[in-house]
Design brief:
Chemotaxis Receptor Methyltransferase Cher, domain 1, seven-stranded mixed sheet, three-stranded antiparallel sheet, 10 helices
């Protein structure tokens, strides 16, 4: 296999390395890296290779084989964590409408929560409606983003995406050393618990959820994995519960157990 990339002062990265990395990230996280993602892999993993004092991707692949602990860094480096507060606003309008008619508590799951903007948006929306009994479980595979989510400190610039009334009821502006930052208020934090969970593994839930947000992660999985996941989400939703997917995600007409309500919202039937 030839060298794919070997920039000056960079690390040799061959087609064989890329093939190995694709196979490992698929096995570990269900993430399917397309052919053109070689440059992304190069830039994401070079940092780690430098940190480890290695000299090539081949050395890194060997280390990944030998040291299972490296898998966490590997997965952290290769997941894409882009998110924002109140992303896909129509889902929060739907949540507000649901909260008006549904007795507390609601049991919600933010199934790929990244750095926490999604679960804190859910919780802030609920708290703004006076709901303090609802529970939001927030999970992700990436340990780094989970640590950031638990810390819950955000650039004040991110607040622009939060509806103004909820910005005040749900978040606090930092002062002194925390000037320029904001954090969710205690009432919002209290609704959310974070936990590491790989969607590819078994899920330890006994009680069904009322609402599952699984947004902007299934795009990284292949069709078979997506369909299997949709079936598993259905098993963990109560009948009449809801699954909310990302804007570029959907489900085949033949997928059993759901009825589309439009706007990437599905009702469990
Ligand atoms: C693009 S972010 C989406 C965040 C948020 N749901 C949103 O829509 O703004 C995708 C998240 O999925 C997580 N992820 C990727 N593969 C996963 C897996 N197998 N299990 C759990 N989380 C995974 C990534 O770590 C990342 O934080």
């Amino acid at each position: 296999m030839g060298v794919l990339l070997n920039p000056p002062e960079g690390f040799a990265f061959t087609a064989a390395d890329f093939a190995f990395i694709r196979q490992r990230i698929f096995a570990l996280a269900g993430i399917r890296l397309l052919d053109h993602k070689d440059k992304l892999v190069y830039s994401r993993l070079s940092r780690r290779i430098r940190e480890l004092g290695l000299h090539s991707f081949a050395q890194y692949c060997q280390l990944l084989e030998r040291q299972p602990a490296e898998q966490t860094h590997f997965v952290n480096a290769l997941t894409t964590n882009k998110t924002q507060f109140f992303r896909e606003q129509h889902h929060f309008a739907f949540l507000a409408e649901l909260a008006e008619r549904h007795p507390a508590p609601l049991r919600l799951w933010s199934a790929a929560c990244s750095t926490g903007e999604e679960p804190y948006s859910i919780a802030a929306q609920l708290v703004a409606l006076g709901r303090h009994q609802d529970k939001v479980l927030a999970t992700d595979l990436n340990t780094q983003v989970l640590a950031a989510a638990e810390a819950g400190l955000y650039d004040l610039g991110d607040a622009a995406a939060i509806p103004q009334a909820i910005r005040h009821s749900g978040f606090l502006k930092g002062k002194g050393a925390q000037a320029g930052w904001m954090k969710p208020r205690q009432a919002v934090r209290a609704l959310v618990s974070f936990r590491r969970l790989n969607l590819m593994d078994d899920w330890p839930f006994r009680e069904p959820f009322d609402v599952i947000f699984c947004r902007n992660v299934m795009i990284y999985f292949d069709k078979a994995t997506q369909s299997k996941l949709l079936g598993r989400f259905r098993q963990h939703l109560r009948a009449g519960g809801y699954l909310l997917l990302g804007h570029a995600e959907g489900m085949d007409k033949g997928q059993p157990g759901y009825r589309s309500l439009g706007h990437t919202i599905w009702e469990a039937v």
